[in-house]
Amino acid sequence: MMAELNSASRGAAVVLPSLEEVHAALEGHVERWTPEILDLSHAIHADPELGGQEFRAVKRVRSVLRKAGFTFDEAQPEEPTAFSARFGSGELVVALCVEYDALPAIGHACGHNVNAASAVGAALALAAVAHELDITVKVLGTPAEETTGGKVDLIDAGFFDDVSLAMMVHAGAADVVGGSSLAMSMWDVLFEGRPAHAAAAPSEGVNALDALVVAQLAIALARQQLPAGSVVSLIVTEGGSAVNVIPERSRASVEMRAPGIDQLRVIQGKVRRCLEAGAHASGCTLHVTPSGNDYAELRQDRYLSTAYQEAMKARGRDVAFNADPVASTDMGNVSQLVPSIHPMVGYDVRGAAHHTAEFAAFGASAGADKAVVDGSFGLAAAACAAAVDPAQRERLLQRPRT
Asked: How far apart are CA 40 and CA 46, in angstroms?
């Protein structure tokens, strides 16, 4: 079966191969690149770098892409560990998001080495069929997912403006697609007062710790009125320097999560009023500084999710469809702009939870390696399914561009 489409970019009819033909080709291309993508996964796993500092990981990823004939866009992101590369010239632009940051002290406890290698593997396989499918494969290095949200910075800088669909997989204990995530925001909070001797002249002081205590109590009481599914967490990071000195400064970190960005805005308003209450009651000055970008909820494209599900059956994987929200990711912001998928690709971690040293220990296991190879195929196959389906291709090409 052959599908024929009109290519506006080329001004001539383009004959596309059938999905069966493409799958057969992808199998060979993924197999060809398996040594390189597994070496990449192992190297990133063994050499963890924190968000915004992933210089060695970026160098490794760029080296593999360059070997496969990718070119790096003339305009590059301002973030030093982000990049934009591409292969092909088709109007349908498939973006693979590569994240590679680790966590302090426990390394790749969220499996981002698996995420990175899978995205790169999918990009390499797609590049091999880019001409036949009339697509452009765009690889975006997206740093600091665990902290500031590098994908949001790339959105703001316009690097997703030409993208038709965006993809990545995430390491996990099971195969799941379709899930959402929680919208999230983090603030650094500073109350400033005035110091004084706590015994000799307490009335001369303005107690910044009192401000934080009032604010924390107000937030605790406000939880009952927050939107369903909301989570507000607060830790005190500074509360004074000596017991006999009225604290002139107190600091806290506040994290807010909600089922969606609209509910998150409600939470932000309530929490800010609680913080202002502490400042007002104590006479302190309040400073609130966002810690990174706000994360929106994840919306996984149904067609691409189903195509991924079907492709993974060929790899012997039974991928569950589950729309429940899990954690938070800056891929949510991408999915608000571009049809996207962010499936979990599973391997045996013996019950270990994400963000633990135990989870990190399995990141270069045989199971993780199989997840990298299978995830590479699944992503590439899902993109190909859309590329050879006339209706889906038209839908993705008609996405409003900014």
From this structure: 10
